[in-house]
Write a structure and sequence with these properties.
This protein is of the alpha/beta class. It contains eleven helices and eight strands. Strands 1-2-4-3-5-6-7-8 form an eight-stranded mixed beta sheet, with helices on both faces. Helix 2 crosses helix 3 and helix 4 packs antiparallel against helix 8.
């Protein structure tokens, strides 16, 4: 954890870590990460983004420096964490970019708190990741598994084999984050994914929306990105030749798509 992280406490007594980068007079862009990562996941993007935005990042409950409450989490609760963060910081509206679980939270915000979201970017995410039984199995196994086993499973799902075989500092950083994640953080977040189905309700999203998908994504399949883009009125779809963590695997193409949409 860096010294730049600050905390708010939510109504249900969960401490949420956050940090700002960039000039205070720019529009705020809020970034939300995937399961098993912390806000450092966005480090490669910060330099470019802070030229035009004040970047706000946070660790979801169960991840990074935020608290790890026991039991199941819900997308509703994860979304309210964001609203409570914005309220505590007295920020009325933001652009929002979320990847994977962060994109699920972004969909919830677009549906339930449209007045808080200017432009919405949903990356490598899904509006439904069923069936329920597979998540119940994963919850049981992640609580029993060795952390190294969990981490390696995620890495195989997130990156192409060729990249995993390199000594990339990016991979090392993500591996460290996965190893540091409390198994209860995974289990609670899995429950939120298990219980969500926004396939119909995302039709209500009124914010201008960009969907970024990965052509080789085996976690949130290309068809999931296509469905989101087809359902949200006026949404734009960009498919990148990547697996799951598109901002890390193809940072230049990712950044181009994001900045073209936001600016």
């Amino acid at each position: 954890m860096s010294m730049n992280e600050l905390f708010i406490t939510t109504g249900d007594s969960c401490r949420i870590a956050y940090r700002f980068d960039g000039p205070g007079d720019k529009p705020v862009l809020l970034l939300s990460n995937s399961i098993g990562t912390d806000l450092s996941m966005w480090d490669p993007q910060i330099e470019a983004l802070t030229e035009n935005f004040r970047v706000l990042r946070y660790d979801s409950r169960g991840q990074g420096a935020s608290d790890v409450p026991a039991g199941s989490y819900s997308v509703d609760r994860l979304g309210r964490d964001v609203i409570e963060l914005l309220d505590a910081l007295k920020i009325s509206r933001v652009h929002f970019c979320g990847l994977s679980l962060g994109g699920i939270v972004g969909q919830w915000l677009g549906i339930h708190a449209p007045e808080r979201i200017d432009r919405l970017i949903l990356c490598n995410t899904s509006s439904y990741l069923g069936p329920t039984e597979q998540w119940n199995g994963r919850i049981v196994s992640v609580l029993k598994a060795e952390r190294t086993e969990t981490a390696e499973t995620f890495l195989r799902n997130w990156f192409p084999p060729a990249l995993l075989e390199t000594d990339s500092p990016t991979i090392a950083g993500i591996r460290a984050g996965l190893l540091a994640t409390d198994p209860q953080g995974f289990a609670g977040s899995y429950a939120a994914v298990r219980d969500m189905d926004m396939r119909r309700t995302i039709k209500l999203i009124s914010s201008p929306t960009l969907v970024i998908g990965g052509q080789y994504d085996t976690v949130t399949l290309p068809s999931h990105s296509e469905l989101i883009a087809a359902t949200i009125p006026g949404a734009k779809l960009v498919m990148l030749p990547v697996v799951h963590l598109s901002n890390l695997e193809s940072p230049d193409a990712f950044m181009n798509a994001v900045l073209e949409f936001l600016l």
